[in-house]
Amino acid sequence: MSHDLDATGPGIIDIWTWSLDAFDPDLAAMLTSEEIARASRFVQPRDGQRFIAGRAGLRRILARYLAVAPRRLGLTYNVFGKPQIAGSNRRQLHFNLSHTETTAMLAVSDHYQVGIDIETIRPLKEDIAGHFFSQKEYMTLKTLAPEEYLQAFYRLWTRKEAFLKALGVGLSLPLDAFDIRISSPQLERLDGDADAPINWSLFDVDTRSDLVGTVAALTVGNPIRLRYRMEENDLLTDLVAHQRHNAPLLHRNDDSRASPS
């Protein structure tokens, strides 16, 4: 059986990645009845399977930090839909999940509020930046060469989404209520909070070339590094093998999320 995971501490945010196509029916045993019912409501079976793979990975990882069985891990949601661990635990744990098509990524910290967003880079169907970004961000994007625009757009989109998810306030905060730098991951302005640029940190996530990702965290100026847990990247495959050996997926705060395309 997998050992418990160490604390992240004040200088580390853990980043976990797994495939949502690593599906097996046995994974549903880790989910609650409510989650299984939710999976059954997807129109396309593939989407329901990916939801199960995402939730099973989430439960598997968080349960190891807290030394509990995955299915016994209680999750609650704030009024804006951001999930959090229910009840009292021996360790405070902050987390956030994002997914795009076949890939899921989870950010975990026992010190800081976190948010993560990943997106698949694909052509845009409309002028999303003009509709949602701040005037400063929009004008900066317009100065870029056509071959630079798409990458920059998705980089900015994931930074803004990750920040909103870390705040946990949903769409109650408009996307144009804050500025994020395009050239580097940095919050420049948040309406009503002059100290926000100092207190919040943004980090570009290492991903495949067709993906873009960002982590946001309320680090209050502390130096942070991202720790990629690649040595156990395929947690779901490991789980299924273990079970068989012993047996006779606009912005929302939970793991259902809008894509810009």
TrEMBL record:
Gene3D superfamilies: 4'-phosphopantetheinyl transferase domain (3.90.470.20)
Keywords: Magnesium, Metal-binding, Transferase
Ranges for domain 4'-phosphopantetheinyl transferase: 113-209
A GO molecular-function annotation: magnesium ion binding
KW Flavoprotein (keyword) present: no
Residues covered by the 4'-phosphopantetheinyl transferase N-terminal domain: 27-108
SUPFAM superfamilies: 4'-phosphopantetheinyl transferase
GO biological process terms on file: fatty acid biosynthetic process; lysine biosynthetic process via aminoadipic acid
Gene Ontology CC terms: cytosol
Family that this chain belongs to: Belongs to the P-Pant transferase superfamily. Gsp/Sfp/HetI/AcpT family.
Name under which the protein is recorded: 4'-phosphopantetheinyl transferase
